[in-house]
Task: inverse folding
């Protein structure tokens, strides 16, 4: 039933999109939208969010020229469901992809379980309204040629990694150019030649050049700084020996020197991590410079965020760099460190430079924000988000009554943010009635003090939200749901 309603909704929306497109054509191009998504960049990994060990001048420039969001949350605590929430405007109790899944392989064993064809993405909506849509980087929502492939989910152009497992490697044998393999020179699994993020970045810049005179949506899910930790020598030499004691990375598993799918991190993993963030920061700076060079900066919104908190794989050492800042937890946690992410927005003439927002928001808010920017109707869409365009413009902003997350891995976890309150339920996959820990994150941002016993009324509200917001999924189930199915 949900898929049928979505399809009807999409048909209705297409009509409103066509009307909106005519209006824009008669006047001027609607605003362009660029969404840059870092991979596993922690809340504290950016200078303006407190990083002291290394510098991020271009990310700081983006924030200082626009708005810094202090309480923005990712869609999930791992890659695929976070991206699904971003693309569909639905939280993980509703969105189609709720975990990192290796189902649905092609013959080459590449790709993740696909978004269903009935799912409506923001790219589909914007494309139907006349936007040129391009995605550059890591997809992870459907193997090549599947219904979840980016070219079947609203993107005119895709270049990058289709499979997030292949995206563990920065020197892969190939990337994907729409549905065609783009072989990379010098990368044969035994030697390193072409650094994939550099090739992807040039494709993204070319997309801006090619579409400067049209309304466009560019989704740039950058693979940096996800493990593995690897950077070209020109960047490594800037930082080698500067972050001691160095956490030496020792490769385990495959005997192949540069096997695909595993982590082939450089031994000097501290230096490699900083070098990678340097590359990411440099690429963001080049995008800012490009929109100004093309004369489209005043009509272009740039949003930067990260898909979840910092990871612990491949030699990563988030504690050394204080990657979480004051937050508790890492990737795969539903504590703040796993889901509160560094987020900023830049839009000359529309966003006041140097502004800071305490607005509580999440990935599923991007969908309605983009729709409102494009001048489209959103009332009939089945989404969980609320547009934060008023916040960007300094106007009266509607607030969420709560935000919700679920994660079926690691024993099963749920979390709710409700004003100053944060409820976290652990190990609930077998016991859906597991106790809820309660924190006042306004006063206890580190989530150290469980005050559930002092506020049973708040705990009851959060328990109700957790039950109501979880819609069963045939694909991503908690253990108690699997047991019910087996019985």
Result:
């Amino acid at each position: 039933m949900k898929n049928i309603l979505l399809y009807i909704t999409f048909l209705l929306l297409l009509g409103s999109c066509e009307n909106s497109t005519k209006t824009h054509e008669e006047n001027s191009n609607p605003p362009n939208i660029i969404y840059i998504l870092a991979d596993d960049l922690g809340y504290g990994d950016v200078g303006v969010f407190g990083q002291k060990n290394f510098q991020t001048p271009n990310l700081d420039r983006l924030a200082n020229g626009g708005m810094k969001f202090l309480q923005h949350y990712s869609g999930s605590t791992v890659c695929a469901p976070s991206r699904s929430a971003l693309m569909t405007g639905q939280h993980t109790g509703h969105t189609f992809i709720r975990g990192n899944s290796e189902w649905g392989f092609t013959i080459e064993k590449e790709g993740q379980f696909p978004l269903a064809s009935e799912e409506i993405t923001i790219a589909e909506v914007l494309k139907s309204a006349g936007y040129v849509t391009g995605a550059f980087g890591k997809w992870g929502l459907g193997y090549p040629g599947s219904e979840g492939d980016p070219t079947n989910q609203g993107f005119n152009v895709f270049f990058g990694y289709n499979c997030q497992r292949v995206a563990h490697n920065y020197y892969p044998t190939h990337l994907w150019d729409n549905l065609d393999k783009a072989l990379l020179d010098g990368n044969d699994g035994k030697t390193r030649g072409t650094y994939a993020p550099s090739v992807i970045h040039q494709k993204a810049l070319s997309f801006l050049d090619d579409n400067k005179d049209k309304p466009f949506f560019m989704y740039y899910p950058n693979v940096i700084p996800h493990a593995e930790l690897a950077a070209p020598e020109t960047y490594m030499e800037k930082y080698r020996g500067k972050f001691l004691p160095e956490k030496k990375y020792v490769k385990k598993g495959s005997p192949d020197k540069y096997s695909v799918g595993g982590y082939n991190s450089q031994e000097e993993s501290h230096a490699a991590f900083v070098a990678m963030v340097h590359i990411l920061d440099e690429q963001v700076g080049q995008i800012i410079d490009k929109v100004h060079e093309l004369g489209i900066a005043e009509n272009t919104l740039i949003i930067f965020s990260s898909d979840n908190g910092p990871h612990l794989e491949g030699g990563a050492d988030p504690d050394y760099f204080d990657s979480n800042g004051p937050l508790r937890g890492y990737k795969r946690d539903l504590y703040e460190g796993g889901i509160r992410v560094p987020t900023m927005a830049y839009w000359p003439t529309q966003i006041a430079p140097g502004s800071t927002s305490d607005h509580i928001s999440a990935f599923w808010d991007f969908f309605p924000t983009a729709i409102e920017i494009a001048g489209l109707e959103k009332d009939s869409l089945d989404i969980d988000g609320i547009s934060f365009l008023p916040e960007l413009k300094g106007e009266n902003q509607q607030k969420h009554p709560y935000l919700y997350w679920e994660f079926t891995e690691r024993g099963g976890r749920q979390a709710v943010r409700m004003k100053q309150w944060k409820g976290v339920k652990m190990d609930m996959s077998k016991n859906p009635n597991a106790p809820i820990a309660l924190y006042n994150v306004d006063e206890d941002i580190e989530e150290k003090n469980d005050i559930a016993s002092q506020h049973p009324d708040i705990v009851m509200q959060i328990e109700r939200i957790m039950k109501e917001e979880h819609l069963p999924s045939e694909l991503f189930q908690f253990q108690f749901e699997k047991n019910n199915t087996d019985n």
